[in-house]
Design brief:
This protein has about 425 residues and is of the alpha+beta class. It has helices spanning about 10-20, 40-45, 50-60, 60-85, 90-100, 115-125, 145-185, 210-215, 230-235, 255-270, 270-285, 290-295, and strands at about 25-30, 35, 90, 130-135, 135-140, 190-195, 220-225, 300, 310, 320-325, 340-345, 350-355, 370-375, 380, 390, 395, 400-405, 410-415, 425-430, 430-435. It has twelve helices and 20 strands. The protein has a five-stranded antiparallel beta sheet with strand order 13-12-11-10-14, with no helix packed on it. The termini are far apart.
Length: about 425
């Protein structure tokens, strides 16, 4: 029967049928010809061209079979590697992707009769990792490229180095926290947590629901309290009169120290009236160099009614106060808006203090760092009403007080001195800070 003419409906139908994949049993690998049905395949087997190809196959059957098997294996592994790399895949799915090419090497032309035999061969030769499951055989490609293996080794080495570095930093941070805790214990500073009380229905209180809800939603307050060891040390310290400004110089003359000890002994042996008059006369004694330094750095205006000195200087740093870091330039912003306690102020430079950084929250453990911070990077901390503060500048400088009220719009507060109960009004926020 002659072929249909080109462009006729019969020719178009034949080409559409031959476009896709046909049945594998009607394909001749030696001739690379796909027959449409059994009749066509039978006619092909009796054709001269097929008989010539079969003579060639008979002369070297093992060599031709091995070449077809090697080409099939190469195509399968390339498909697995290019599309899935080292991912675990179903062997049948990879085979379906491979046979999408119409001119691929068919399995009936290889030395493997089934796909399972081929997958087991890949596992035995070490080219893939094979695994049999309920859903069939799964294969995983084994990487052999030396360049990629070197890259993977470098990556793994870098990951291990980063992990060791993180462990080393974690150990250092833990040691710093332990040292900071020891320093706080020696300094007598502890952390006290006070939780708000929860009112139940049977508590006996007849308050309304809104009041109970406000108490339940009240936040937990964190207070820095001093331990007994700190109070004992403070009791043994020499009390400074109201007129003396706090000074961070711990260096005192031996002669002045002896005079003070003699004065204490006289106060214990003399009556109360003579003791008061003698203490006033002692307060006037000061070292000439110290008097000269005070005249250079302070401007005092004495008040006759309260006997307090209005002392204002450019430096306001002092020990045992709470401060906040307000500059992003310091330490590249790592401690921006963090609070800390001033441990000490350097004598040679009264504008630099040693600050211990506190934890950023009750559940955080990121504090304990001890840093040298300049005064320009710090600001005072205004506590809640009723808390203790220390006056760092102006009238009553160096004295402890209780914050009665705070006007956050005008940045002023009303203080009550702890020693004599005197009230100081309109004190700027910059002139006092929370005491610890």
């Amino acid at each position: 029967m002659p072929k249909a003419e080109k462009g006729t409906p019969k020719d178009i139908a034949n080409r559409m049928k031959a476009k896709g994949l046909q049945k594998l049993k009607f394909y001749c690998q030696m001739c690379s010809k796909q027959c449409r049905d059994e009749n066509g395949f039978k006619c092909h087997l009796t054709s001269d061209s097929h008989l010539r190809q079969m003579k060639i196959f008979c002369s070297n059957s093992s060599g031709i079979l091995d070449s077809f098997s090697a080409e099939f294996e190469k195509t399968y592994l390339e498909t697995l590697y290019r599309r899935h790399r080292t991912k675990k895949m179903n062997a049948n799915n990879v085979y379906q992707e491979m046979i999408q090419d119409k001119h691929h090497i068919h399995m009936n032309a290889t030395k493997w009769t089934t796909l399972s035999d081929f997958v087991q061969y890949l596992g035995k030769t070490g080219k893939c990792v094979v695994e049999e499951t309920e859903r069939g055989w799964y294969v995983t490609y084994i990487e052999r490229d030396p360049t990629i293996l070197a890259q993977q080794e470098n990556y793994q080495r870098r990951v291990d180095a980063e992990r060791r570095q993180e462990e080393r930093l974690a150990k250092q941070m833990e040691l710093q926290r332990i040292e900071a805790a020891k320093l706080m214990d020696r300094a007598g500073i502890g952390l006290k947590v006070e939780a708000s009380k929860l009112l139940g229905e049977n508590d006996g209180g007849g308050g309304d629901a809104a009041e109970k809800k406000s108490i339940i939603n009240a936040p937990i307050e964190l207070k820095l309290s001093t331990m007994g060891t700190m109070t004992k040390k403070k009791k043994n310290k020499r009390k400074t009169p109201h007129g003396i400004v706090f000074e961070n110089d711990s260096e005192q003359d031996e002669q002045e120290e002896k005079e003070w000890k003699e004065q204490q002994a006289l106060e214990k042996s003399q009556p109360q009236n003579t003791r008061e008059s003698q203490s006033l006369s002692y307060n006037k004694i000061s070292h000439p160099e110290k008097r000269q330094r005070q005249q250079e750095t302070t401007t005092t205006t004495s008040s006759s009614s309260s006997q307090l000195q209005d002392v204002r200087t450019k430096n306001w740093l002092t020990n045992d106060i709470l401060v906040r870091i307000i500059s992003k330039k310091f330490a590249n912003g790592q401690f921006y808006k963090r609070k800390g306690i001033i441990q000490r102020v350097y004598h040679h430079d009264k504008f630099t203090a040693q600050v211990e950084i506190l934890d950023s929250g009750p559940d955080q453990r990121d504090g304990g760092d001890i840093l040298d911070v300049d005064q320009k990077y710090l600001e005072t901390v205004v506590p809640k009403d009723g808390k203790k503060v220390r006056i760092v500048n102006g009238k009553g400088r160096g004295m402890l007080a209780i914050l009665q009220s705070a006007d956050h719009e005008k940045c002023r507060g009303t203080l009550e001195l702890v020693d004599n109960g005197k009230i100081l009004k309109k004190v700027d926020f910059d002139d006092f800070s929370k005491a610890v």
